[in-house]
Amino acid sequence: MTGGKVERRHSLFPDFDDWFGRGFPGLPGWRPATAAHSIPVEVTRDNGAYVLRAELPGMDPDDIGVTVDDNLVTVTAEHGESEDDKEHSEFRYGSFRRTVRLPSPVPADGVEASYADGILTVRVPMPDEEPKTARTVPVRRADGVPEGGTS
Questions:
Q1: Cα–Cα distances in Å, from 83 out to 24, 52, 64?
Q2: In Å, how far are 40, 79, 92 from 95, measured between CA atoms?
Q3: Potential cystine with 125: which of 39, 78, 100, 110 (Cβ 3.0-4.6 Å)?
Q4: What is the pLDDT of residues 36-47, one digit of tens each?
Q5: Could you tell me what percent of the chain has a pLDDT over 70?
Q6: Is 143 a residue whose pLDDT tops 60?
Q7: Residue 110 CA from chain centroid, whole number
Q8: What is the reported pTM?
Q9: What residues pair up with 67 in beta bridges, in sequence order?
Q10: Taking the chain, what is the end-to-end CA distance rounded to the nearest angstrom?
Q11: More confident residue, 19 or 120
């Protein structure tokens, strides 16, 4: 995997989070009452680490959480609405959540997170890859007759 790109999965059906994160088709602005807003992310590789960047404009870093479990990185955030009387607002308030699956387990140590200019950056060190070796597997007959033999 060294030097390659993180896989993008394409499907005929949208990811469940993406489906509800944009609103249900045909019902603009509809979303389940318990759903958290989806967080836009990008994942790249840089100097031996996966770098996850998440758009969280206007957030306080104290309201952002990052958890790692096996090969999953989960970003959560809470953005409370002000009490001001608004004429119009397109801001999103409430809970935000996004889980990203990385190609390998996240190490227990070395994960770093920082927040600047509305972008959360999480650096996850990539584990050292074990060299892959090819080998030949012999194929035997299922009927019990030795290879090259007659019945």
A1: 28, 33, 21
A2: 14, 7, 9
A3: 110
A4: 678 999 999 988
A5: 69
A6: yes
A7: 18
A8: 0.60
A9: 74
A10: 48
A11: 120
Query: What's at 113, amino acid-wise?
Result: A
Distances (CA, A) of 121 to 58, 113, 114: 15, 6, 5
Torsion of CA 21, 22, 25, 31, to 10 degrees: 50
Query: What confidence score (pLDDT) does residue 66 get?
Result: 95
* Spatial CA neighbour of 128 closest among 26, 22, 49: 49
Distance CA 54, CA 98 (A): 9
Q: Which amino acid is at 7?
A: E
Which token pair is 36? 């958290």
For the record, the structure tokens of 9 come out as 């999965």
Q: In sequence order, what E strands does the chain have? A: 37-38, 41-46, 49-55, 64-69, 72-79, 94-101, 112-116, 119-125
Provide the token pair at 32.
């389940």
Q: Supply the DSSP symbol for 130.
A: P
Tokens of 41: 């992310």
